[in-house]
Amino acid sequence: MGIAFGPHCKIQSIAAHRRRIRRHCYLSRAKRLLQYRHLLKAQKVSDLLQIASPILPEETRARLNAVYAQVPAVSCAGCDAPGSCCELTDAEYNDDFATMYPLYAVEYINIIDYVRSHFDPKKQRELLNTVEERPRRCPFLTPEGGCSIHPARPLTCRTYGILNQVSQVNATAESARDQVPYQWISSFLSTERYTVCPKTKLKEATKVDAHMKAMVSLEYERELIYLSDTLNWLDADRLELFQQITKKTHPTRWTWGGFNALTQKP
Ligand code: SF4
Ligand code: SF4
User: Is 164 in the pocket of ligand 2 (CB under 6 A)?
Assistant: First the structure.
């Protein structure tokens, strides 16, 4: 099964995430895709679970892991509610929060490769059949509050809880004020204020300054967008349907359920 760590380190190694998702962004598009899937020609549909070798090119995976390596590790040891950050309360749900969002296409494929090699076929199908864009509980959260895809978890989960207080987020934004466009700072503040956790402990403090600089200057995001946009993983029918529904050229970032709706067999 896909739980890659023992009970003790489950709690220590979890890094979690929930982030506000804008309504009318990609929300509900998974439902629309499901509605139109019958238009796809079944024989052309790539079933990601049937492909024998890893889908993500090794060079791309190395670049993705290089981004992840820049993020300081945190410890959640002693947390009194492990995994609570991977679930939505009623208030968070009503306020447009989503777990595991944003998920970049390159990260989605990386997780697919992990799921295919660490979970049994029944669980693989269950995970890939999840098309809910904002489930109350992340589909990868274990009953004990651990992350079942911890080595492959997305950037958004890795960056959660690195800072303990909102004042640290504000200080980072302030120090970048004359160095990056105002819109970047505004975007940084509007998301990162919701990702602090007072209960984590930093394990790699020396990485923090460079990491926060990368966050406020959108360095990680640019690399993940580039890597996602270089992937050629959708067949022509599927891409065309996506373009018709979203008016975007290709999927760069979405939710786990949204990507699943796109890749599912009709
Ligand atoms: S992928 Fe793992 S860390 Fe991220 S929200 Fe899900 S359970 Fe939590
Ligand atoms: S310490 Fe914070 S980030 Fe870690 S599991 Fe607990 S609530 Fe989540």
Answer: no
